[in-house]
Amino acid sequence: MCGIVAYIGSQAAYPIILKGLKRLEYRGYDSAGIALYGKNITNFKKKGRVAELESWTDEITLTASVGIGHTRWATHGEPSDVNAHPHKSNSGKITLVHNGIIENYASLKQELIQKGYTFESATDTEVLVNFIEEIQQSNNYSLEEAMRIALKRVVGAYVIIVMEEGFPNRLIAARKGSPLVIGVGDGEHFLASDASPIIEYTKKVIYVNDYELAIISEDEIILKNLGNEPITPYIQQLDMELAQIEKGGYDHFMLKEIFDQPASLTDCLRGRLDSENMTLTLAGVEQHLSVFAQAKRIVIVACGTSWHAGLVAEYMIETLCRIPVEVEYASEFRYRNPVIGPGDIIIAISQSGETADTLVAIERAKEQGAFIFGVVNAVGSSIARISHAGAYTHAGPEIGVASTKAFTAQLTVLAMMAMKIGKAKGTLASAEYDRLIAELALIPEKVKTSLATHEKIKEVAKHYADARDFLFLGRGYNFPVALEGALKLKEISYIHAEGYPAAEMKHGPIALVDENLPVLFIATKDAYYEKIVSNIQEIKARKGMVIAVISEGDTLIRDMADHVMVVPEVDELLAPLISVLPTQLLSYYIGVLRGLDVDKPRNLAKSVTVE
Ligand code: F6R
Fold first, then answer.
1. What percent of the chain has pLDDT over 90?
2. Is the pTM above the cut of 0.90?
3. Could you give the C-alpha distances from 333 to 69, 361, 389, in angstroms and in order?
4. CA atoms of 611 and 364, how far apart (whole Å)
5. Beta-carbon count within 10 A of 416 CB
6. In 3D, which of 215, 210, 213, 226 has the Cα closest to residue 176?
7. Given 177, 218, 357, 473, which residue has the most CB atoms within 10 angstroms?
8. Residue 240 pLDDT exceeds 80
9. pLDDT tens track for 42-77
């Protein structure tokens, strides 16, 4: 979490950093700050959104051409002016922004207090900046040397960008566990947590790796490791357009991203699915087909919405490939000493590619000999880079904090993987494979048809915007969709919602049912249809309100439910790609009706780079 931006060059740094921070606000938005190097370093920071910084107008905001900025998601210390970044060292010589957590900050702070250091804030970051200063001053080291030594003693995750009084043409950055991209311009350089603040200035970027230090002036980038050995920077070309990170006429990014799905799924299938020749091309899987075919088991690790995609993949892979699959919360998996070894495949699913728990989970599994396959959206991200192989979801940048188009793209990639592996193993018959290819090719069009019902879903939303609780139920492939629907509603509307397998309802949640509880069934036509009809009856018999996502032409549930949201019929293996859409729209409209900021729900951040 937290977004950082820096600029060094000959343009005014302030507007570039301010705009960059707005682009990164999805990473955290409880306070923000900018430090600019004019005659000396001036720091301006405030509790609240990045827009709070717009009131800063003095000479330095017009003239300074070097600066660093930060938008915060609080970990240590509540959101406040004083806890906002940048933080200065006691002498005022070093100023720093930080994304991550310094886990041993308490012991370092004690050490520093004994040496006479004082602290204004409750942050781990203020400890880090003073720790660097202490090493620098007591050994008479350069800032670079002091940072190298300090960072070797720091436990935790960080990206830091540091400015020093007396060195107006230099920024020093370092990373471990949190993302950092350098934009390479002509006589100017940009640094940021992701490429979105950089894209309109340059498409040449360097992704900094863990344990690397970057010393940057307007016309030079020096990369070194923490052992002070030089590293040749690898400059890549960004595959992203500015329009992809703007709202494009929609009220919110979330709505734009929901409506992006016909296009994002087309992008995801492009060059992979060929329904004329009945082929699927997935280079990452093809190059390691024997690894997949011989796998003893597959463990999927992910968090949140990506974990829900993993649950769908469990059904897909077990059905088509007959390989046992386990789906793990990355945060649990990483700490419980799991039994992992050669012959195991770990599939890490992540939109951002930077989620700290997922990243560490796969690092551990990799050390234990597992083969790591990344299903990642953000190109060049840490999870993509650490994986042995992978398949990008190509959904384009997702800015709305609640994940929508990334989820459906994950499902699409996972379905293609299951089909490809199943075909290679012989567990998926050719005729069935061809049928699924044909079905998959129709998905973008069916998504479009489904989204065209948005006005009807808006009407449904009006009936439930004041609900206190919600229950989401589904079976089989639609069970993870129930979980995802509940998560989306919680995030966006702050309505308490729970997702359950529909049959499991009788083992507890049914006690909640009364005339005030909306129960949303994901009830499209599949092998479980009759069972779900019985579950709906059970709710109606107890006077619960029933909303149902149903397949076109289904009159039985239409007549039983209070409200329905209709989707085109799809093969059950691919059903989640379509049945999730009404739940995304319903959450969005309820959030808007409740007057909430659906793109930036309270307490959340898009990229969870702390554990
Ligand atoms: C929910 C949501 C989160 C993320 C989770 C994992 O709408 O966005 O639950 O799915 O934080 O993030 P990634 O996929 O970036 O690893």
1. 85
2. no
3. 34, 7, 21
4. 15
5. 23
6. 210
7. 473
8. no
9. 999 999 999 999 999 888 999 999 999 999 988 888
525 φ, ψ (degrees, to nearest 5): -70, 115
Query: How many other CB atoms sit within 10 Å of the CB of residue 78?
Result: 11
Residue 57 to residue 205: CA distance in whole angstroms: 31
Contacts of residue 455, defined as CB under 8 A and 6 or more positions apart, other chains included, come to none
Compute how many other C-beta atoms are within 10 angstroms of the C-beta atom of residue 332: 12
What the block records as the tokens of 114 is 């004994």
Q: What is the pLDDT of residue 577?
A: 98
pLDDT by residue (tens digit) across 318-344? 999 999 999 999 999 988 888 998 889
The count of C-alpha atoms lying within 13 angstroms of the C-alpha of 523, restricted to the half-sphere facing its C-beta, is 33
Indicate the pairing of strand 545-551 with strand 94-102: unpaired
Of residues 15 and 246, more confidently modeled = 15
Task: Answer yes or no: is pLDDT of 606 > 80.
Answer: no
Task: Choose which residue among 308, 352, 377 to substitute to test ligand 1 binding: the one with the highest number of ligand atoms within 8 A of its C-beta.
Answer: 352
What token pair was written down for 363? 């690092």
The DSSP code for 455 is H
HEC string of 352-372? CCCCHHHHHHHHHHHHCCCEE
Residue 1 has pLDDT above 80, yes or no: no
> Would you put residue 105 in left (φ > 0), alpha (ψ -120 to 50) or beta?
alpha
Residue 413 clears pLDDT 90, i.e. is over it: yes
For residues 37 and 13, what is the distance between their CA atoms, to the nearest angstrom?
A: 9
Residue 409, φ and ψ in degrees, nearest 5: -70, -35
The DSSP annotation for 541-569 comes to TTT-EEEEEEETT-HHHHHHSSEEEEE--
The residue-averaged pLDDT of 559-582 equals 97
Pocket test residue of 194, 305, 376 for ligand 1, highest count of atoms within 8 A of CB = 305
Q: Which two tokens stand for residue 565?
A: 């949201």
